[in-house]
Design brief:
Blueprint (H helix, E strand, L loop, with lengths): L33 H30 L4 H8 L3 H8 L7 H11 L3 H5 L17 E3 L5 E5 L7 E10 L4 E4 L7 E8 L1 E6 L2 E6 L3 E5 L4 E5 L5 E13 L1
Antiparallel strand pairs: 1-2, 2-3, 3-10, 4-9, 5-8, 5-10, 6-7, 6-9
Length: 233
């Protein structure tokens, strides 16, 4: 009986079933990609704040009769940088804004306030004012409207794994009440280090330099209530 000839099999692809590396394994290398997605709004937001900060800085500086040179000496921020900020040509980092606010004796929000009308206001996550540190490891999202002078401010803070954020001393009488929502952090205050895990909170006087350090493997999320001694805006 004549045997039927078998069709010649097609050559196997190097990515076929017999391959030691299935196609589904290559995309796994892109797993860390979600981290930049969290920071995406932060890269765009400072540019939107630049003209607002510039106008507020110019108004507050002139109200106090300070020249750029004198404010530079008081704040430790260069005259050139202050000039660029006032012109809306430079978006300052969180640390720079804190130095300016301390020198002007105003709240942090006084510099980033858009001076809108007060009333019922829904703050959409995608429209929030977000500021970042120079290395983008730390971000601060305001959770309150900037419509009037206030004594209390509320922020969401995010710190990348291994990140450290050092804060300048704030005005006398300023207090920070911070709660850790996710991750593990260390807070350095007046030479002492305090360890906080998710759910822990801390209250301290913030009129001396302090630092936040993420000692966990993932991003740390914190919520901060900043209370000033008096209303300044």
């Amino acid at each position: 009986m004549k045997r039927k000839s078998r069709p010649t099999p097609a050559p196997k692809s190097s990515r076929g079933a017999g391959s030691s590396e299935p196609p589904s394994r290559k995309p796994a290398a892109a797993a860390p990609a979600p981290a930049p997605a969290v920071l995406a709004p932060e890269h765009a937001e400072p540019a939107d704040l630049a003209p607002i900060v510039g106008a507020n800085l110019r108004r507050l500086r002139t109200r106090r009769g300070l020249s750029l040179e004198k404010l530079a000496n008081q704040s430790g921020v260069s005259r050139a940088m202050l000039g660029q900020i006032e012109l809306g040509q430079s978006a300052p980092t969180i640390n720079v804004l804190w130095k300016i606010a301390r020198a002007l004796e105003v709240t942090f929000s006084a510099l980033i306030s858009s001076r809108t009308q007060s009333g019922v206001l829904v703050l959409r996550a995608g429209e929030a004012k977000v500021l970042t540190s120079k290395d983008r490891a730390f971000s601060s999202r305001a959770l309150f409207p900037f419509d009037e002078p206030r004594r209390v401010e509320f922020y969401e803070l995010r710190l990348a794994s291994g990140g450290v954020e050092r804060a300048e001393s704030h005005a006398p009488g300023t207090a920070e009440n911070l709660v850790v929502s996710a991750g593990s952090v260390e807070i350095d205050i007046a030479g002492e280090t305090h360890h906080l895990d998710a759910g822990d909170s801390i209250l301290f006087e913030a009129d001396s330099p302090h630092a936040y350090r993420n000692i966990g493997r993932g991003e740390a999320v914190m919520f901060l209530v900043m209370t000033y001694a008096q209303e300044v805006g």
